[in-house]
Structure formats: structure tokens, C-alpha cells
Amino acid sequence: QAQLVESGGGLVQPGGSLRLSCVASGFPLYFYAMSWSRQAPGKERELVATITDSASSADYADSVKGRFTISRDNAKSTVYLQMNALKPEDTAKYLCHTRDQITWGQGTQVTVSS
Asked: Fewer CB in a 10 Å sphere around the end CB: N or C, the chain?
């Protein structure tokens, strides 16, 4: 059974950093382009970043470009999201998923507040 499990969320002050991890099991991660999206209360879900299966390229939402970096380690079946210079508006539940949106994790909460 395909499964994605996120970790690494938490409470951080504005300007701080967090690194999210997403571990895949039950399917060959290296075949799939992967994405991170986020969902904040009262807002539409936002696609944050996508990385190709070979990590040859990545795309970012304008709202996070230059601050977030998506990466992957296929040998560890893990996708990462490095988040720097965090802002209060980055507060949301962050979800890892296949780019085709078929498989999703449960999400990890990120709260940016002083």
C-alpha cells in the first residue's frame, strides 16, 4: 500500500528555518515526480514546489521562490522541503504528494509566530 509520511513541522519564529521530510513506502518513489502543497485555514490549497523524478529540475510558487528548496534522496525514498526566511503567512499544514495527486501524506503543521 502506497504511503507518504511527513515530519519536521513545528513552531518557528519569523525569519527562522525548518526542514520537512516525506518518507515514501509501498511504491517506487524514484518513478514519480513529487510535490509539496500547503493548506491554511480559510484558504485554498497551494502548490508550493515540485521536483522531477530524477531531481533534474524543480518548480516553485512565486510566494516561496528564493526561500524554499525541494530536494529528494531516492535511495532513502525521501523528499525534503527546506524552508528559510519563514514568514507568518507560511503558516499551514504542509502535505507531500505525488505530482499526479494520487498519493498524499497526512501532512505536518508549520506555524510561524513570534
From this structure: N
